[in-house]
From TrEMBL:
Keywords: Membrane, Transferase, Transmembrane, Transmembrane helix
Keyword Protein biosynthesis in record: no
GO molecular function: transferase activity
Transmembrane segments: 238-259, 290-311
Record-annotated Glycosyltransferase 2-like domain positions: 4-169
Keyword Transmembrane helix included in the entry's annotation: yes
Natural source organism: Microscilla marina ATCC 23134
Listed Gene3D superfamilies: Spore Coat Polysaccharide Biosynthesis Protein SpsA, Chain A
Record protein name field: Glycosyltransferase
Amino acid sequence: MKYSIIIPVYNRPDEVQELLDSLTRQTYKNFEVIIVEDGSTNKCDEAVAQFVGILDIHYHFKKNEGQGFARNYGYAHAVGDYFIVFDSDCLIPEKYLEIVHHRLSENFLDAFGGPDKAADSFTNVQKAISYSMTSPMSTGGIRGNKKRLGGTFHPRSFNMGISREVYEKTKGYILPRMGEDIEFSIRIIKNGFTTGLIPEAHVYHKRRTNFKQFYKQLHFFGRARININRYHKGQIKLVHLFPAIFTLAALLLPIMPFINLNLSLLQVSGFALYSLIVFSDAATKEQNTVVAAFSVVAVWTQLLAYGIGFITEAFMIRPKIKPKQ
């Protein structure tokens, strides 16, 4: 089976070069790589040119419309039997395609997702952010589970594969951004296709390199959850409300002593205990107390950013984006 690896990119030539370098070491060789430059001003064409003749690689430049439509562009130009999408800030382990091919050959999935991990080369902050986004101590724990809370596994586009049949029936993404991958997964499942997690098919996902960038990303994710619910009702579960509840409780901290001192002390104790649990869990998993300390900051950043985005978007009145086929 031939795989088409599709990578949308926007102003990230250095990361694309690292990603492509990791793909040269794949043990399974029957694949092509499609780079879709989504209107970047800092293009990656020179980085891509270094791998011509080493990889079966194809470079496309299009106007900026968002990563969802960039992926659609890649799907439309793919010749493979199965399409795999990576974010441009991922590094791919050498046995990734071999693992995926073995799994699909034994028990085929119309669409799959894989988890993400932190590489040893990542900074302490990147490792902390990775912990926050993958740990059950935050809402990140639901991303790498075989089943999401309340139903079937929903692949995410940082590490996701679909069969050609899925693309031909669904026509890909109908949203350019803001929850586009979750919306796509919902339609894949509604169309009767099988989905599942391949736990061993992980990628090393750099995500954001500092907490300011991480905050902006998670604020957008919080808004995206509300946006998805506009297209598919019932997509807000208790786990998605937790960051909003956490945020409201944190915002009440300064005034709580004036309302009820005992309740204020209980609230502070609860936050302190939660932070201690996060620190202890991260220290155990990462074997690094510096990463553990940064992990507490990362978890707080994740929950507050997501919660604020979720709350503010919930009060916005927006027309639905007209789907682009």
